[in-house]
Amino acid sequence: MKPYRNHVFVCQGKRCSAKGSEALLDTLKERVKELGVKDVKVSKSGCLKMCKETDKEAELCPTMVVYPQGVWYKNVTTGDVDEIIEKHFKKGEPIDRLAHFKLS
Ligand code: FES
Which residues form the domain of 37? Predict the structure, then answer.
């Protein structure tokens, strides 16, 4: 087995779930498969705690984090999926308008 180039964790905590994170997870998995992106692993996670980042709970939801770059995305929708795949996963260019933190 080759190691994955990117490992993505899509939050399925209750605040993100209330804002569509299950559909986001399903769409991301489907599109990665359909586009033949074999070196990216998509996983679900529990609460990533970004929902506690602001005074307004869930303001940043749905959230996801992409490693190894450590890019934390906020307010991601199913409409953002293809752009994330094309720019971040394939070209290594994080999407600035969706990024909340970048560790590298
Ligand atoms: S429920 Fe998703 S960050 Fe907390």
Answer: 6-102
Q: What is the DSSP letter of 54?
A: S
99: Cβ below 6 Å to ligand 1? no
Tally of domains within the chain: 1
- Contact assessment for residue 32 and residue 64, using Cβ atoms and an 8 Å cutoff: no
Q: With beta carbons less than 8 A apart as the criterion, state whether 28 and 77 touch.
A: no
Domain presence at residue 1? no
d(CA 18, CA 76): 13
In ligand 1, the atom with minimum distance to the C-alpha of 52 is: 4
Q: What is the pLDDT of residues 5-21, one digit of tens each?
A: 999 999 999 999 999 99
pTM, entire model: 0.95
